[in-house]
Hints:
The complex is a heterodimer. Chain A is α/β, with parallel strands linked by helices.
Amino acid sequence: MDNKSRRDFLKNTGLGVGGAALAGAIPGLSVNAAVAADLVDPADPLAPKEPHFPAKIKSVIWLHQNGAPSTLDLYDYKPELVKNAGKPVPESFLKGIKTSTQGGVNGLFVSKERTWKQYGESGAWFSNLLPNLANHADKLTFIKSSVTIGATHDISILKLNTGDLNPGRPSLGAWVSYALGTANPDLPPYVVLYNGASEPRAGSVNWHSGFLPAVYQGTAFRPGASPIYYLDRPELRSALQQRNSLDLLNKLNQIGASDRPLDTELKARLRSYELADRMQVAAPEAVDLTKESDATKKLYGIDDPVSSSYGTTLLRARRLVERGVRFIQVVSGAPDGETEITSWDAHDDLDKNHGLMAKMVDKPIAGLLEDLKTLGLLETTLVVWTSEFSRTPWGESGTGRDHNPWGYTQWMAGGGLKAGFTYGATDELGVQVADKDTAVDTYDLHATVLQLLGLNHLKTTFINNGRSERPTVVFGKVIKDILA
Amino acid sequence: MRNFVVALRFFVLLFGLNLLAISAPFAEESEMDMDLMQTIEDTNDSLTSNVSLEDADAATADAQTLNELFAVVVEHYQKELAAGNDVAEAVKLSEKSKKISGDIISQVKAGDFESAAHSATELSRTCKTCHNFYKED
């Protein structure tokens, strides 16, 4: 097969490295421009690409609160719930929802430890669990009419990140990498961070590239000084030896490449060797906090054992934003050394669970917002506080709450948004969304994030098996009411 | 291949219509769900893709199929409503879906694929709303 016909073959079948260009459409162009192969360097699928319209933000920090916090205990103050604590849930509030709480729907539950106060000019309500974040009320844009599909945590987490209940679709971060490429050739455009001893339990399928080329998947940075598996140079090998090997390899490959100028796989391989070489320096530097001041570390709660690991993660996130990483997905874990409570999943003893988890994230998130603002980065960054679902107003096990996908709170902060603004509401008890027309599903959240990045979700497309796919599946509507 | 798909859709449509005609006196909603609703979902997915691909012929065929299928759904729920069942919302939403599928045919004909993409999204959301509403029924 000669080079010309081989190229045609690749174009027509969508195979090979650089599939982003060969098999898919460039975002924003109609697919008939699958000839996009001619417009994008197939050897550099991460080359920066222009958005569809001017972007409001450059980076996203996606704060996944793993385990589903009860937003009825954090942001969504319900006087009627307090008033009716212990009473059964009126049937009218349960219309149209299918409950699966073990032991049925119990009486309404309110923690005796919970107190509420309004903050800022916006007057947003915060519970006593988030005293530090509450001071940033006027920076936040609440979506109090969030909905999703309630299933197991793992399945709903998958939907939160990919828009589907089954594995196989790209995560939001992968779509962003595909659509915009990288802003820093020395670092991956999509990084996943987590605190705690092990990788998040729902796994790498949540930062997978799905049917997009693998180059767009998220790169998980482990806690600790060496963030990427197998990135470090072996101790027995000097930097000079490695450089010499790469130079030789490069020279040999260049000879091969000159004979086959259209061999995109070879070009991509050359690029990946050099990227790995550069990342050996850039990635550890990006997450090295030794040059951060004590005051900054304190701001993120790194001086407190409960918030230290999460604070470290968020300070790393800020450093990645500074270095042009497009999408940083942060999955909450547990404080170092904590083995009993590993997520927000409070089916029982909510006070103990949320007391610890809120303390773990409160100061770090408040610190992140303040730091971004001080550095002038909040205008060009989007912070998204999100979870797979939330928790019911009725009790479970006497002291906990069950899963609630029918109405809960998420928030965003940063560029292009109405700050100090609340969109939507739940009913008087916090069971489900009050007005179904304001319901914000995962797809709508994704569409809005993409919009702020300058991407039209309807035109961010990729051809998979002959079908044009987009990040929002067949749904998605930008929440225009929250845009500045 | 496309002819095969069109023929298959035609068969499913005919099958659905026959099923409805046969079962109308004892109106088994679940039977309609199994056959028509799956076809509607598949055709809707195809429509979304074809609108995105700006493939006017295929998008029109999909929208036309949906328009005919939603006519069946509207008729079904109107009969259910007349029989005193609590399906007023289903009538409203299926009528809305039929209208949107008709709008898409016009938009594609006019070459306005951007509006068609928004309409197709609205159609998907309407389907979702109806299924959420009647999930427990």
